[in-house]
Amino acid sequence: xxxxxxxxxxxxxxxDELPKNLERNVIRGGLxxxxxxxxxxxxxxxxxxxxxxxxxxxxxxxxxGAKLSSYVKLRGKGSYLxxxxxxxxxxxxxxxxxxxxxxxxxRHGPRKVxxxxxxxxxxxxxxxxxENFVGPTVMHPGHAAKPFLRPALDQKAEEAVNAMGSYIAxxxxxxxxxxxxxEVDDE
Length: 187
Prior knowledge:
Structural class: alpha+beta
Shape: elongated
Strand content: 25-35%
Strand order of the largest sheet: 1-12
Helix content: 40-55%
Number of strands: 12
Number of domains: 2
Largest sheet: 2 strands, antiparallel
Number of helices: 6
């Protein structure tokens, strides 16, 4: 997504007059302020079952040479679920590999066991759904996508830019130097 800003060149000229570490810290803080807006919307959009995925939505900034950027991403416990919720899951077969299936020792040597025996044995090699052992194979029906990250950016991009501009304007007020207000250019 590309956003054009009004006041951007004026801001860059002003920041060039500041010491580099102050410039970098002000921009980094502004980027974090903008990312925070997107993060809050993503948390509002996420379907909540346990709250684990909601807690996994985080923000950060990164530096690549002279380029600074911010991001909203999933991290920590429960973050792996986000991909499945955001993009959905196609129907698929889930099975236990042959190496993990239980083997019953008999006097004639080891032999594979049937699903009924697996459920009775209650050992590794049987898939469990809730409290029920269902055997070594199950068909997962999949589920539709419930995007929450991408719509958050679409819904709050302009507000994020405004938050970034407000943060920078608040931080850069030295004598006659004032940061210009940033606005989204609708053209």
